[in-house]
Amino acid sequence: MTGTILNVIAVLAGGTVGTLLGNRLPTRIQETVMHGLGLMVLVIGMVMAIGTNNLLIPLFSVVAGGMLGELMRIDDGLNWLGAQAEARWGGALGQGKTAGWSVTRAFVTSSLIFCVGPMTILGSIQDGLLGDYELLAIKSALDGFAAIPFAASLGPGVLLSVGTVALVQGGLSALAGGLGLGLEEVSRETPWVVELTATGGVMILGIGLTLLDLKRIRVASLLPSIAIAPLLVWLLGVTGIGY
């Protein structure tokens, strides 16, 4: 779990720095920073999404995952957790203290961004299976820097995302360590990783649109898509249809 611990520390550090900066930044600067973040998130999502080798896989994954996610009310559940945290610790976390700060929005947005992507999956597998936390260490540095502008614009609710990071990455590491079979050769070029990345990119695009206030997309409800994409790749291989 070394990589996950590093990631938690990095987000806490970056979120703290961002919170301190946010208190001192004028509203116009915070708005511009948020728009810049939204645009960069769109770019990241687009780069991830266009890497697919079969457009039908992320397409079907997102459609099926969205339906499943809505039935499970995942987005409502994540927002409920944020609202509970807001009700309990909102004052301590600066709710309403600075324009644009929202504990719920900060928690949900940062949780999704820090946990959706190939580095989360691959890094957690390598850490749990081989004890190699190099990839998660790199991710930790990236997340730590990303947490600074997010906390400055959305507020210290970003700090709460460390719980999501610990749960997701720690759970994946434990699962990889427990199963282990056939995961030693996993890389970014592995077919199921490629399609998982592309599907995650579509979700990242949704986060970007939400940050820009262009369209409020229930991205959390698309989370099952990440599990469906690798399953589809496996099914295509097993049935002989070919990937």
Could you write a compact summary of the structure shown?
The chain is mostly helical. The protein has helices at residues 2-22, 27-49, 56-72, 74-89, 103-115, 118-130, 134-154, 161-179, 191-211, 224-239.
What does the model show?
The chain has about 240 residues and is mainly alpha-helical. It has one domain. The protein has helices at about 1-20, 25-50, 55-70, 75-90, 105-115, 120-130, 135-155, 160-180, 190-210, 225-240. α4 (about 75-90) crosses α5 (about 105-115), α6 (about 120-130) crosses α7 and α9 (about 190-210) packs antiparallel against α10 (about 225-240). About 50% of the residues are buried.
List its traits.
single chain; about 240 residues; mainly alpha; about 75% helix
Q: Indicate the mean pLDDT.
A: 84
Query: What gross morphology would you assign?
Result: globular
Helix content: over 70%
What's the helix-strand series?
HHHHHHHHHH
Number of helices: 10
Q: Uncertain runs with pLDDT below 50, 5 residues or more?
A: none
Q: Tell me about the biggest sheet?
A: none
Topology:
Elements lengths: L1 H21 L4 H23 L6 H17 L1 H16 L13 H13 L2 H13 L3 H21 L6 H19 L11 H21 L12 H16 L4
